[in-house]
Amino acid sequence: MAAVSFERTIASAKRTMVLSEIARLAVDSFLASKVRFVLTALGMVIGSASLILVVTIGLTGKAYVLSLLESIGTNEVIVDYLGGNNVSAGKSEQDFLTIEDVAAVRQQVPGVLAASPLLQLHDTVSIGDGSVRDTLILGVDPEYKVVRNLKVTAGRFFDQEDDFTHAKLAVVTPMLAKILYGSPDQAVGQHISIGGIPFSIIGVFKESVDTFGQTEIADQTILIPYPVARYFTGTDSVKEIYFSTTSSRNVESTAQEILRVIQTRHRATSVYTVQTLTAVLTVAAQITNALTIVLLLISSVTLIVSGVGIMNIMLANVRARIREIGIRKAVGATYREIRMQFLVEAIFISLSGGIVGTILGLGVPIAIRLVTGFAIPVSIWSAIIALATATLIGVIFGTLPATRAAQMDPVESLKYE
After folding, report:
1. Is the predicted pLDDT of residue 417 greater than 80, yes or no?
2. So what's the pLDDT on residue 169?
């Protein structure tokens, strides 16, 4: 047993000595031709840096798109009444949502942070100069500002006290304020008349992200307290209710619980639906990931071209060192050692370029972050992938030159001039 252990130790020491000698010979070879080494490694520098930058650009784009969607409200749940009539005695009755449904959900669903019914009206709006406009009017709860993540650019939003006292107050969109009064600031404090009832404009609001009129809020919209909006309809019925959950992680589960509570309060034949942004967020993430993969495939072309360059240089290197190979074989170098020597040289070129490219690829976004303060996401995995790819390129494109060098006949190599 002791003899076997001693032999293994000797064999391990020999392998270490061979590897160290191969590494030393590789370094000596590169020092003898620095310019050729730098020019060959330059392709890997560009390829590795571009790979990391492509991943960085992809992550930045993904974060930007998701942030836009999150600004609309990732915690948002919208409940709609779709229909389902109850026919009795020749009459058809609609089973709309009610303000009591909002209270019931608040009591029974702990994941709800805020809620607001939405009552949509189209009525004439009269302003001080006597002109009349047909404008979209939404009756909402003060918590609608939280649910829809609205920004108040001038004045204020109506609060719970205004809602309780049925105050005749209104907040308008910037475009409507500009059309009516020239600027949002001048709109605050003005008076309008909706259906003959006077209202005071107390604020100007906008969505966190411009949705170009694709949501319930149009470019020219007026928000008024929901209890006041009920005067125009004479009913407690609403077609939509907006909810906001405490966390974006429990949106889907909370949405299903909200739907369950509402269905238990209405007829079994009535149909209601819940909408969230979860599906949209998932699709957006998939699209950005697909674009990143496409860009990665494009940037990988640079790495392949660099690999071809490494192979050409190594083939030329083998051709220039035929006599050296013959001498090494004559003094006892094995097929495996010769092959390993040239393979290590190819990997060394590729990996050196990959390391420099990785440093540059990580340095650019970090420098931008330090200079501009803009948070650019940096993936450590992209650096690991770049280095692993650089090593793999060296192995793949260095195998042919290394094999050709190892297969050379020692006698013919020594005769080579």
Report:
1. no
2. 93
